[in-house]
Amino acid sequence: MDYEVLMNGNVRIGQYAPDFTATSTMGEIKLEDYKGKWLVLFSHPGDFTPVCTTEIIAFAKVYTYFKQLNTELLGLSVDSNASHLAWVFDIYCRTGIRIPFPIIADRNGAIARKYGMISNDVSNTETVRNVYIIDGNGIIRTILIYPMNVGRFIPEIIRIVQALQMADCETAATPANWIVNQPIIQQIPKTFKALEERNNQIQENNNGMSWYLSFKEPSEKCKNDVDKCEKNL
User: Fold this and answer.
1) Is 52 a catalytic residue?
2) Which CATH architecture best describes the domain 3-152?
3) Given pLDDT bands bounded at 50, 70 and 90, which one contains residue 223?
């Protein structure tokens, strides 16, 4: 365990996600249960609160799309498991929507503090709206932090997972505002000869601005792996 993570909860992109074992609405779970799958771990300030309720419902409605991207969802707050169960049952009774993913009951805040989900300048007890996108190797790939009074935009979280998976599949990068089926950015040439070849390619194909910024179409394999979710949105 990284000492800085242990003491300050200062997790960073590129680190292994801190391990945990927790009680949840679907029984005991461990981070290692998600090995080989992508994971969206998100915290919410509290059960039976309006913004959190809209978010939980929104995540539930698109859960199957995350599954198609080999991605699981996992919620967390410092409320008790009994409170979580009562909340998801109330949502089901009033809307008919079942929450198909676990919600961790982090009563002592151990996981929340390990991940840096509690902002002491906002609250010493409630978690803010953090999102951690963790890949199948257990590496934190994205961290998003929202204030308590602003709900998350779930389609953007899906898009980030798609962009990360595309970038990994192609060993490339995605440009600003990238969405599925759009061109991706080619790797920058590492030699002068490759630079000249790239400039010639751009002149022939009109697929870039300069040697350091050019685009290509994703391979069919990578497109098929990533855009199967997009077709259903």
Assistant:
1) yes
2) 3-Layer(aba) Sandwich (3.40)
3) confident
